[in-house]
Amino acid sequence: MPEVRKVAVSFAVNGEPRTVEAYPMARLLDVLRQDLLLTGTKEGCGEGECGACSVLIDGELVNSCLVPVAQAEGSRITTIEGIAGETLHAVQEAFVECGGAQCGICTPGMVLAAVTLVGRQSAQPTEDDIRNGLAGNLCRCTGYMRIFEAVLQACEKSVGAGA
């Protein structure tokens, strides 16, 4: 059996070019957390069921626990650390104001899913739109109503601002 060796994998993370030496099948989640010290992305289930490890790859929401790092070669990755600029993103503000975060395990994935939803909405989302947009993200603390309220509030601000 041939020896598996680490390879150089290059991508942009939160707008910064990065190159890591990793085993090709290492999980993107582990590379982000351990090699790049971006610990905002959480491991919940490790099976792609909970959404706690969600990141954006080339603008698409994915579970980083299911992505081999070699698959991310040349991509643009956004983690929770890359969402806020000089100020919090409207979704992050709404999560704070509406109490949409409790223990914090699901929050990064929920915020990224909500940011994706808000970015694709041209009008106020329905409850079904929000449920579909957040599908695949599990929260064991909030009961979801405060998260839904946060998404609605963020959409109101974004649509009102012409975003």
Main attributes of the structure:
DNA polymerase, domain 1; alpha+beta; single chain; 163 residues; 2 domains
Describe the protein.
It is a single chain. By secondary structure, the protein is α+β, with helices and mostly antiparallel strands. It folds into two domains: 7-82, Beta-grasp domain (Ubiquitin-like (UB roll)); 90-160, [2Fe-2S]-binding domain (DNA polymerase, domain 1, Orthogonal Bundle), CATH 1.10.150.120. Helix content is 34%, strand content 15%. The chain contains five helices and five strands; from the N terminus they run E-E-H-E-E-E-H-H-H-H. It has a five-stranded mixed sheet with strand order 2-1-5-3-4, with helices on both faces. The protein is elongated. The mean pLDDT is 92.
Distance between the termini: 54 Å
Superfamily at the CATH H level of the largest domain? Beta-grasp domain
CATH top level label of the largest domain: Alpha Beta
Shape: elongated
Structural class call reads: alpha+beta
Quote the CATH topology of the largest domain: Ubiquitin-like (UB roll)
Number of strands: 5
Largest sheet: 5 strands, mixed
Would you identify the CATH architecture of the largest domain? Answer: Roll
Helix-strand pattern? EEHEEEHHHH
Residue share in β-strands: 15-25%
- The average pLDDT is 92
Helical content stands at: 25-40%
Number of structural units classed as domains? 2
Our Rg estimate from Cα atoms comes to 16 Å
How many distinct helices?
5
